[in-house]
Amino acid sequence: MRIRYCALIGCFSRHLKCHPKALLKQSLRVSVIAFVSVLPSRCRLRGDVVLLHTLFDDALRRIPCVLCFDDLDALCSLPKSPRDQERLRALKCAWLERVGRLPAASTKGGVLVLGVINNPWLLDDDVRSQFERILFAPLPHEADRLRLLKQLVRSPALTDEDYRHLAKRTEGFTSTFLSMLAADALRNARAVCEHAYDRAIDADALKVTLSDVLTSMDKVELPESVSRRSSSGTASKTESVLTSP
């Protein structure tokens, strides 16, 4: 069966093997990528969604083509102001209308609609029903977190046992939050050294300690999209799993 509509659910930031841009680069098709979260700010009120129509028209001219919508769950968010609600409602209606009008795939190929979703519980039935397959990208497993931490921290002050301890403590972290953790730990180490020596310290001379990383962990707050990943009850016609990098 030829799949025309596919949704990717997960935290894809910095996941090079799972990131939609990386997937599209490996495809022979031309790709058109749209970030849904920024579309409402570019579309005027009263249903003027010229930009969205332009994206679909561009995709149809480039057949075979992959039309990727990042942050697709933003279509179903609930803005605070009535003006933004009206703007988003017009955008959503236009998206549903254009997706429904896409031609069937032929021997020349067609348009593959790829939606990237971080908060699947925000999707309503209208948007969810457009997709024939939903792929879940799991959070990094302990072995993946161990590898990522070693790549990101790279401190001679940390032993293999320290890294294994941190890999266990960072369950639920995406690669993005591991990067944030490593950067904050480096800032902690720099602050301690500069306070002790009363001068600027070269970054190459800094040694991040286990205490620096643990202190940074107390500052990291995982978003709702991560904390609810395992409990999400999003239904789909076909479900698959993407392997973590």
Automatic annotation (TrEMBL):
Signal sequence extent: none
Pfam families, sorted: AAA (PF00004)
Residues covered by region (Disordered): 222-245
Compositional bias (Polar residues): 233-245
GO BP annotation list: endosomal transport; vacuole organization
Gene3D superfamilies with a match to the protein in the record: 1.10.8.60, P-loop containing nucleotide triphosphate hydrolases
ATPase AAA-type core domain location: 51-138
Example GO molecular function: ATP hydrolysis activity
Highest taxon above the source species: Eukaryota
InterPro entries referenced in this protein's UniProt entry, alphabetically: ATPase_AAA_core, MT-severing_AAA_ATPase, P-loop_NTPase
SUPFAM superfamilies named in the record: P-loop containing nucleoside triphosphate hydrolases
Protein name per UniProt: ATPase AAA-type core domain-containing protein
